[in-house]
Amino acid sequence: MLKKKIILILIFIFTCCHFLNFSYAINKGIIYLASNQEVIEKGDEVEITINIEDAKTAAFTSYLYFDNLKFEYISGPENANVIDNCVIFVWYDTMGGSGTKNGELAKFKFKAKENGFATFSVQGEFYSEVGQLIQTDFKETQVQIGKEQSNLQKQAEEEQGTSSQSSNATLQVLRLDKEGVIPSFNKETHEYYLTVSSDVQDIEVLAISENPNAMVEITGNTDLKEGLNLITIRVTSEDKMQSNTYTIEVTKTANLELANTNLEILAIENVLLNPPFDSYQTNYKAEVSNATQTINLLAVPENEQATVEVSGKENLVEGNNIVTAIVTAPNGFTKKKYQIEIYKRNIEEEEKYQEQQKQKLEEAQKISELSINTDEKEEEIKTEDKEQKRNIIVWTTIILFVIVVSIVIFIYKKKHKNL
Asked: pTM, whole model, 2 decimals?
């Protein structure tokens, strides 16, 4: 009670001084609030300070307003008093003017109760060392409780793996908050590439495993350095017996063209790629005959200064062979690997393949012959139609001629009979 009475008396004294003697403000200052943290979690504490700038004060009464639904008052100066959502604090210089304050005036501590944004504001009266009111502008501050969810975080809550196999260590979803990842995600593809500008510091990664109980560890996606960075996503199965590692090679650079590792052309002589070549697709399949020992691979980079190193195109064995074309960008360190899985048929498969091709050729020939016969029949029908039309025209002409002649003869005979 005594504490409240002292505060009320001081407020009354300063208010009277304001109206009786010190109504003329000769000084100007800024009263602003500052917090030691802009973003905190629920249950954490934050310190809010009242500060004065461009002026010195020898006495003041401050009213610090806060959102009492999101924060609770913890502590402050000894003679601070809290009423609802307002912290009232009165201070005066006990040293006769030599103890005036500039900068930080008072510090208060609050504890976060609920997530969201909360604003702190301040009002009050501030006096100079000669007892004159300081003309003040007031500035508030805002604190965020709980980090706002990103789009990827929201997606992570909505998407869950669907596999119940305890040995499953495969990703179902892999997304970044940056565009341009090559190639598009496929759970069987474990190597990806991305180039970003120099202002990118962190990359948010959304990695969801097919088995929701599998463990997913993501490293290397923060504090990116200039040059080459490696993001690693390691998936460990629920039973801890299996694991898979997915990597994203990230080039951080100010010159994106010098980091260009795209191919303009990727082709094998007399062999079709599956799928058809696309510079944003890095994995392909192809099939060759049993007699093929070496393939002729054409790999041309988009940037003429980039280099391409091809391996695995010679001494092909029956079954699967891996041919790679590694493109090194003009900057010398950014790389991208294009991979072709080439299947070389064995003798039995080759014979079967040749027989199938022979059958297809025969079927094509039959279709061609049938088409020719059909064309010939159509031509005969057209010829017959033309002949019939011509005969009709001839006979029609003859009949008309006879009719005309008959009419002329009839008229001639009648005329001479009358004579």
From this structure: 0.56
